[in-house]
Fold each of these.
Amino acid sequence: MRNSPSNTLLSVPSGGLQISEFPPPQLITDKTKIYFSLIIPTYKERENIVRLVKVLSELLEEVIPDDYELIVVDDDSPDRTWEVAQSMMAEYPNLRVMRRQQERGLSSAVIRGWQVARGSVLGVIDGDLQHPPEVLAQLLRSIEQGADLAVASRHIDGGGVSRWSAVRRFLSRGAQVLGLIFLPGVLGRVSDPMSGYFMVRRRCIAGVTLNPVGYKILLEVIARGNVAEIAEVGYVFCERKQGESKVTWKQYVEYLHHLLRLRLTTTQVGQKFSFPIGRFLRFGLVGLSGVFVDMAILYLLSDPSTLALPLTRSKIIAGEIAIFNNFLWNDAWTFADVAMQQQEWHHRAKRFLKFNLVCLAGLLINVLVLNLVFNFVIPNRYIANLIAIAVATIWNFWVNLKLSWRVTDVK
Ligand code: GDD
Ligand code: MN
């Protein structure tokens, strides 16, 4: 028997945003068990939905024939996306459609979809074809191989963004760095915590109340769920061909709000967080070697008995050579395991550029903390400087670990 005999719309769950351990009883009569439920949140995606449902159905029919459902959750789009989706239900029996009129928002749409889902694996994909459907097969395979959560990532091998402006890239990265500082145990676990394309085993999020603000549902799943093993699959974020993005400055504010709320309300954030102490020690030693390089070059360039160049110019050159020295050692030693996998020169150059930028920001942090501590906390410049150096070192280590060499929780 196929799933939906009629083309009635799904009723919208109300109350808390909690996902039950077992699919909702009123639906079990349909088919006792289903493997995979994929939510497609939509708002004004009339132009995309037909093609997306077609492609997804063909693909899933091949991988897990009739063992899946597609759930479109539309927020009463003015272009009547829900109606278009509904009209496809006769042709695609595994398609179900929800039209929400009381609530709005991407994350809550996804959760409402999961609440009526029957699958033991719950997924989400954008409704605008920016997430390449082929990746689904790989994500499903990762789950089969034991992952609790499989995330499509733009930031690992095979991943990328097609034509993002420098501004959007910068904002996206800035948001990630902020999260790495506030919630290291959550954002540090994956290379692309902003991904809106992933799947998770139901049992990992069953029973917990998800309470996201804004767009970033994945953060919520990692922070509140019970996720042990994570897998990542690279994908290229395609350009939108139809319709437009709903992201505005408001999503950035909501993101900050979300980070803050997760920080204040989750306790397990600290528990899962393990600091890579060995790497940190190596990083520290390399940093120390940089001090000597810096000193030696400064001497060679600026000392009256040697080249006697102006001090500032000498220091800039000495500093950059020290950074280069540190990079080489970190690449060959501290993060050798990661660097080994990406040896091409353009990968190295990219890492070096990132390392440079992070260390430059580290220098600013160093000066800032020194001033703050000296003026407001401990009026002793050497103690203040030690604290500033410690903070900057941790910054340099952590952000380079996550962005330049990208060490995540993933196998
Ligand atoms: N139901 C519902 N309600 N759907 C929404 C809403 C809403 O309020 N807002 C957006 N959507 C749907 C869109 O119709 C689209 O299918 C999907 O959510 C993503 O929205 P976009 O506006 O296209 O977002 P984006 O392309 O800028 O960003 C996406 O990709 C990022 C990178 O992977 C989102 O998936 C982000 O969450 C993701 O981080
Ligand atoms: Mn989009």
Note: The pocket of guanosine-5'-diphosphate-alpha-D-mannose (ligand 1) is lined by residues 41-43, 45, 73-75, 104-106, 109, 126-128, 130, 194-197, 215, 237, 245-247 (CB under 6 Å).
Amino acid sequence: MIRPRRNRRSPAIRSMVRETLITPADFILPMFLHEEAEDTPLASMPGVTRWSLDSLLREAGEAHALGIPAVVLFPKIEEVLKSPLAEECYNDAGLVPRAIRALKAAHPTLCVITDVALDPYNSDGHDGVVWRDERGEVTVLNDETVAILCQQALCHARAGADIVAPSDMMDGRVAAIREALDADDFQNVSIMSYTAKYASAYYGPFRGALDSAPKDGDKQTYQMDPANAREAVREALLDEAEGADVLMVKPAGPYLDIITRIRDTTTLPVAAYQVSGEYLMLKSAAAAGWLDERAIVLESLTGIKRAGADMILTYFAKQAASWLR
Ligand code: PBG
């Protein structure tokens, strides 16, 4: 008789036949920061904090010491600095460029990734420039936005970012950013493209953390329809052709099939973003005593990696890394 259970008989045997291993080196820690001197624990994301610059350096150092190779920065921008054309996003003296410089100085081996999109800087709360017609109907302009994203990416590169990650879903932005970086001698700055970013309800807590929810309308004219999978393959082929170095799927847990399809479509590394709503669901169920936090978090991350992700952006990065040591 054929007995698959023989391969599950003991921890030793299970450890030899295990197909997927997660390690701290798989994780990227998303970090929120603001201009204030005090840290703010986030009401919408228990266990996550928006950091002052000093605390950001300390926390990033701790994460790196746990074996986490990279962080990605998400700023909360003061209301007075927001504008329709988001000029603050390429201010070399702005919060993000200062944070990049400080991080690279304090932790030279830490990989610093930045988010490229206008939503924290844009008075309209959209990832791109908003145009309103006579009836007040909102359009998010593509090519005008891409020109600004290029300036934002260059600003991050000048400050020392290792990877820029456009999360805006405008068409043609990977090629445009690649060209802009190369023209300014930043050939070595990588692009991690949010290739298949869905118009998802799972981003709710994040928008609360940064005050970045769109003022009018929603993001469905640029982020993808959760019902579509073939379209993700189309986006992946385009981003690869445009010169992306890493392709990302977001959210992660409810989109494991998309991770697998993109894995099978490209030879590029694939990243997956376990987003704020996914974090909150696991965290709140664990806090209520309904789920075993350590087991559920490690299982969710293993599932994302098993689906085909080479790297995982997760708010659990530090916790998971400490459990895995
Ligand atoms: C916006 C951006 C969002 C997230 C990352 N970058 C929100 C959005 O698209 O509205 C979401 C991350 C999360 O929910 O954890 N450029």
Note: The chain has one domain: 19-324.
